[in-house]
Write a structure and sequence with these properties.
The structure holds 2 protein chains of 2 kinds.
Chain A (H helix, E strand, L loop, with lengths): L5 H22 L15 H6 L2 H17 L7 H15 L7 H26 L8 H36 L4
Helix pairs in contact in A: 1-3, 1-6, 3-4, 4-5, 5-6
Chain B lengths: L1 H23 L2 H35 L3 H39 L7 E13 L4 E5 L12 E4 L2 E9 L4 E5 L6 E6 L8 E5 L10 E7 L11 E4 L11 E11 L5 E8 L8 E7 L4 H6 L7 H4 L1
Antiparallel strand pairs in B: 1-2, 1-12, 2-5, 3-4, 3-12, 4-5, 6-7, 6-9, 7-8, 8-11, 9-10, 10-11
The chains are: A mainly alpha, B alpha+beta.
Chain lengths: 170, 297
């Protein structure tokens, strides 16, 4: 029997990781890169939560990232919801550990790409668009997101699975 | 499995419908949602920032007494010098007021200073911002200038209950008018933040520099606020020109890059200048029943 508020408890349990990533971005602000992990934190819960719970969990993660940043509101949240629907509807895609990690890298990179693209569209009047510069910055941001996923995914997923075990989510 | 796929299809259709609704919803609802998530995060950000301050406090406590005595002595000397300057300033202020009254000249905007600690910094190609630990409860309003001494740090963009978002001078969305040091008579130039690449220092672009302008020899030219536009008081330092002034492609004007006068990556505390009375911009943007004309007068 799945707890109705399990997704919210899981979100609150995951939040310290998001804050830690923000703190890392803050400490290394001279890098001009965002330590983005909002995509990777939805992968492990989407395997076990019900679809509607996974949707709400992902929406909260997305809106939390957007809240204090000038990103077009809803762009990341809806992207994460879409990815959560795919992940929770096709669990066979994440059947083993290697696939799970690949999935996490893909989800983190896709969602990172979406907010980056949304920003470039919303700022097109203020910053003249230069494809080479955009590509260079995007590549670095995506590489950082992928590296963070490789480094942190195991730890975060083990932690989230333990929380879900405590909540008796099947 | 088929049920699962059908469910996924239905969910995606529902998501598309919801996105359509979200776009057509009044902006108030979207703003409310954003505000709710910001307020949810504020206590955690405050707590982390305060714990960092506490760590710094204990670090300072471990300093030797000799160090503290030396620091206290230096501070006392600086205080004595500043007190003398303060007296001189008070005389100048009184004289200024008297002259303004004689000429019936309108008073310049007066500011209240709210000192705020920096909670976190958030920089990327698209934005250069910081969060400060003071908000609506402390009287901060959107658009207030943020300074460190007489150096401009940025401008408040969004205000929450206990935290505020500050756009730095190097942020691509930052715009301001300025005068250049060594330009006589002073002519207005335009300062705007530049999208910076990773691992580079944030800069701003100074444009519309007149073709006959040459920076003062042997020193870096300062970029100073004009006081026009009603946001920044006059005479604050925005930064210094970097790498010389170059001709634009058309050849009729010049442009240059500006580095901020204060290292924005290490700054720990800032002052927010809150106008004592609503500015002209605020009056125009606010409903008439909220800000009365009498209050402005």
């Amino acid at each position: 029997m799945t707890l109705t508020w399990a997704w919210l408890i899981l979100f609150l349990a995951t939040y310290p990781w998001l804050i830690a990533a923000d703190l890392l971005s803050s400490s290394l602000s001279s890098w001009n890169l965002v330590f983005y992990i909002s995509g990777l934190v939805i992968v492990a819960p989407c395997r076990r939560l019900r679809r509607w719970q996974a949707i709400l969990f992902s929406a909260f993660i997305g809106f939390t990232f957007e809240a204090l940043r000038p990103i077009p509101h809803g762009s990341l949240a809806f992207c994460l919801i879409f990815l959560a629907i795919i992940l929770s509807s096709f669990p066979e895609l994440l059947r083993d550990k290697a696939r799970l990690r690949q999935g996490a890298i893909l989800v983190n990179a896709i969602s990172c790409f979406i907010w980056y693209l949304a920003m470039s569209i919303s700022m097109r009047e203020e910053i003249p668009f230069q494809f080479s510069s955009f590509l260079y910055n995007l590549t670095l941001q995506l590489l950082l997101s992928a590296t963070l996923t490789l480094l942190l995914f195991n730890t975060i997923s083990v932690y989230q699975n333990r929380v879900m075990d405590k909540l008796r989510i099947p | 499995m088929d049920n699962n796929r059908q469910g996924a299809k239905a969910s995606i259709i529902a998501l598309i419908v919801f996105i359509g609704l979200w776009i057509t919803l009044p902006s108030t609802i979207r703003r409310l949602n954003k505000e709710a998530f910001s307020e949810f995060q504020a206590p955690a950000i405050q707590l982390l920032s305060k714990s960092r301050d506490l760590a710094r406090y204990w670090e300072l406590r471990s300093r030797s007494t000799e160090d503290l005595i030396a620091a206290g002595r230096d501070l006392a000397r600086i205080n004595a010098t500043l007190e003398l300057k303060l007296h001189a300033m008070e005389d100048i202020r009184k004289e200024n007021l008297r002259l303004r009254e004689m000429l019936r000249y309108p008073n310049s905007t007066e500011y209240l200073t709210v000192v705020a600690r920096v909670a976190t910094r958030d920089t990327s190609t698209w934005w250069q911002r910081m969060l400060i630990r003071k908000g609506r409860n402390d009287g901060i309003r959107p658009g207030c200038p943020v300074v460190f001494g007489n150096r401009v740090v940025g401008r408040v963009t969004t205000v929450h209950l206990n935290i505020s978002e500050v756009e730095l001078v190097t942020s691509p969305a930052f715009r301001c008018t300025a005068f250049l040091e060594g330009d006589d008579p002073p002519r207005i130039v335009h300062v705007s933040g530049v999208a910076s690449n990773p691992f580079t220092t944030g800069r701003a672009k100074v444009s519309i520099i007149q073709a006959d302008y040459t920076p003062p020899a042997g020193q870096v030219a300062k970029v100073i606020t004009t006081g026009l536009g009603g946001v920044f008081p006059t005479g604050l330092i925005l930064g210094t020109l970097e790498g010389g002034v170059t001709q634009t492609a058309q050849g009729n004007l010049k442009e240059a890059y500006m580095v901020p006068s204060k290292n924005l990556d290490t700054i720990e505390e800032v002052s927010v200048l809150v106008p004592k009375y609503p500015t002209a911009g605020e009056i125009l943007m606010s409903p008439t029943d909220r800000i009365k004309l009498e209050e402005f007068k």
